[in-house]
Design brief:
heterodimer, A: about 280 residues, alpha/beta, Rossmann fold, seven-stranded mixed beta sheet, three-stranded antiparallel beta sheet, 13 helices, B: about 200 residues, seven-stranded parallel beta sheet, two-stranded antiparallel ribbon, 7 helices
């Protein structure tokens, strides 16, 4: 590692301020250790020193898009944490099957793998036609990928173990049309989905949902921001609506513990209580 | 080998002990967990490479043999003294300024998630010289760059002697990068932990 391609903590703050001023994206409440690591990575990839990074951010809006893609972690898997999907099938699906219609919000959906995992579960349960899945992210490039629903076959095959461990029948490739190295998600899974831009930091309630899934997104946010978003989720959920967080993301605040009932402690599945 | 007074003093001045390893590191790390007193007066963080999805028996085995409190890291856990924290599989574990953990699911480093490099580098930013780090046996170079950063920031850095390590590549990579201030046998490392 070149020592000049690193960034100090005050410099990270400087970049955060600059990005907010010029582009309106506020990373001020993101966890700093992760941001610092991402910025260092961009600088190493682009062979930039701190002043190059600053200068390019100010003068090149195209570069900002790349910066945004690097800074927000878009690594995702289908059926990540299979035990979650197993618990979901057992504890959430029975509720959803009693509903006329289920609106699902997949918040921070990146390239759509998780939204389509939920679509597969809903389809398996025979609920796909009475459900609608909204996937949102701040990253427009990722959203394009999500809308296409085309992934490399190698990647899809790497999710085979997750799929099997989630207790689902058949094979993950059953849900894709495969042509050479491209795996395209079946069109009936793509139906009733909408992928659009939403920034959890600055945007508001846009619909009412029976289920919100936001997994491994909170880990990048400081506690105060997590709580603000919990409030947004609370307001966006229908009575008795479900909230699914990542395996290591627990609702800790006393305020929200009275607003959400724990459905599965280990998998962090919650249900809205109160009005 | 007698441990010199300087290393002992720096060990005593550490608030955090980092233990990293991969293939062949389970045994020496397990032995360390067994001998820590309940009042070690430091926090211990363990980063061992492992496979996702297989709920490993490591936590249970470690917890059963440890006199210290032991838990797998959860997002935003505050780092407490006299507690052993295990980095969870399929996440990177980082440390924030207020001495709490944050997690990250970004790409694997050296095919590993958790990556020892990522944990070590972020610990060095926060703990500087108030930290001791040990890199044990392993078959890839993850951890060496992080150990170097720790050393440059004043931490006490130790590697298990590659001659006795089951897999020498990991400690050797650290030695080659001049990241290791001390090269000790597992026995000496355990002795230090009891001083």
């Amino acid at each position: 590692m070149q020592p000049d391609e690193t960034i100090t903590t005050p410099q990270v703050t400087e970049i955060i301020d600059l990005v907010k001023r010029i582009y309106g994206f506020d990373f001020g409440s993101y966890t700093k250790a992760s941001l610092k690591r991402r910025m260092t990575r961009i600088m190493q990839l682009k062979r930039m020193q701190f002043y190059d990074l600053k200068h390019t951010l100010v003068n090149d809006a195209g570069f900002f898009q790349q910066f945004l893609e690097e800074i927000t972690v878009n690594v995702t898997e289908m059926f990540r944490d299979p035990s979650f999907y197993k618990a979901f099938n057992k504890q959430v699906i029975p509720y959803l099957s009693s509903y006329q219609h289920t609106k699902i919000w997949c918040a921070g959906c990146a390239s759509g793998e998780e939204a389509y995992s939920l679509a597969i579960l809903m389809q398996t349960a025979g609920l796909r036609k009475k459900s609608f899945i909204y996937g949102t992210d701040i990253n427009t490039e990722c959203l394009k990928e999500a809308r296409k629903g085309i992934y490399s076959l190698r990647k899809i095959k790497s999710y085979a173990e997750n799929y099997q461990m989630a207790g689902l029948e058949g094979s993950i490739t059953d849900h894709f049309t495969i042509l050479y190295d491209a795996a395209t998600i079946h069109s009936e899974l793509k139906q009733n989905t909408l992928f659009s831009v939403h920034n959890l930091v600055s945007d508001n309630v846009f619909n009412e949902f029976q289920l919100i899934s936001c997994r491994n997104v909170f880990i990048y946010f400081e506690i105060a921001l997590q709580e603000r978003i919990l409030d947004l989720f609370y307001k966006s959920l229908a009575p008795l609506g479900f909230l699914c967080l990542g395996a290591k993301e627990t609702i800790r605040s006393d305020n929200f513990r009275t607003k959400f009932k724990v459905i599965n402690q280990k998998e962090n599945i919650y249900q809205k209580i109160g009005s | 080998m007698a441990l010199d007074p300087k290393i002992i003093e720096r060990w005593h001045n550490s608030d955090l002990l980092l233990l990293g390893g991969s293939a062949g590191s389970f045994k020496p790390i397990y032995n360390a967990v067994k001998i820590f007193p309940a009042n070690l007066n430091k926090a211990v963080m363990i980063i061992i490479h492992r496979k996702k999805n297989f709920f490993s028996e490591i936590e249970k085995l470690f917890a059963d043999s440890s006199r210290m409190l032991l838990r797998e890291v959860s997002d935003k856990d505050v780092i407490n003294n006299n507690t052993i924290y295990i980095a969870p599989a399929n996440y990177h574990t980082l440390i924030e300024k207020d001495r709490s953990f944050s997690l990250d699911v970004s790409d694997a480093v050296w095919y590993s998630k958790p990556s020892i490099d990522v944990a070590f580098e972020s610990a060095s930013d926060i703990y500087h010289e108030r930290c001791t780090a040990v890199l044990f046996s392993g078959a890839n170079p993850d951890g060496a760059a992080g150990l170097l950063k720790l050393r440059n920031n004043g931490a006490l850095t130790i590697v298990q002697d590659p001659i006795e390590a089951e897999m020498s590549e990991m400690p050797q990579a650290a030695i080659d990068m001049k990241a290791a201030e001390y090269i000790l046998t597992a026995k000496d490392i355990l002795e230090l932990f009891q001083l």
